[in-house]
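TASK: fixed-backbone design
INPUT:
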């Protein structure tokens, strides 16, 4: 049986990932793929409980990174790896690139600690395609406010934090250009969807 594909969506809060994730799932299912849609932190009952702690409880930076990777390890073991081995596709809102961007770039976690955790939790496994939705933090922040949702402790950070997160995402993309594609998220949703659909179709269905 063919091994499935793993697609992740990344970007600062307010970049507009959610609607595009749903669109990609529809695109894949229309082509006969079995797709699992998930998110991080979360994706499993334990992961969702850890998500609540991570988004709302103040904690030490290293505790935060360890909990992120603990949730990820459970997610991989319970859902991602079994789905890929069964030949299914996995579309996930955030993965380890988010930890790099937020904890290393945003908060200043030592890079070698991130590298050690990544090598321990998913050695040899990276997404087949990562789409980074790039948007100036001030525009993203305005979108978050206009949504009316109650902000979590990450969304309440100052603009300079999100500048660091954004720069870390772009740095990560520059280091892995075959895997990571940067999407200009400051455009109409239908234009973004068309670009992503073309990218997915050309890569796997042309």
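OUTPUT:
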């Amino acid at each position: 049986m063919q091994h499935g594909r793993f697609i992740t969506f990344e970007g600062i809060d307010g970049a507009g990932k959610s609607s595009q994730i749903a669109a990609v799932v529809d695109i894949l299912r229309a082509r006969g793929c079995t797709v699992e849609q998930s998110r991080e932190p979360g994706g499993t009952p334990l992961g969702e409980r850890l998500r609540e702690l991570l988004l709302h409880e103040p904690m030490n930076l290293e505790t935060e990174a360890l909990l992120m990777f603990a949730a990820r390890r459970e997610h991989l073991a319970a859902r991602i790896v079994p789905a890929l081995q069964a030949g299914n596709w996995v579309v996930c809102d955030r993965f380890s690139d988010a930890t790099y961007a937020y904890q290393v770039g945003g908060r200043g976690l030592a890079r070698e600690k991130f590298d050690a955790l990544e090598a321990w939790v998913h050695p040899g496994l990276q997404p087949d395609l990562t789409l980074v939705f790039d948007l100036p933090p001030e525009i993203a922040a305005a979108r978050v406010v206009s949504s009316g949702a109650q902000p979590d402790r990450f969304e309440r950070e100052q603009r300079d934090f999100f500048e660091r997160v954004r720069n870390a995402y772009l740095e990560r993309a520059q280091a892995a250009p075959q895997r990571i594609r940067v999407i200009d998220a400051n455009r109409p949703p239908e234009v973004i969807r068309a670009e992503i659909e073309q990218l997915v179709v050309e890569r796997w269905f042309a």
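COMMENT: The helical segments are 17-30, 45-56, 61-85, 96-106, 111-121, 137-147, 159-175, 189-204.
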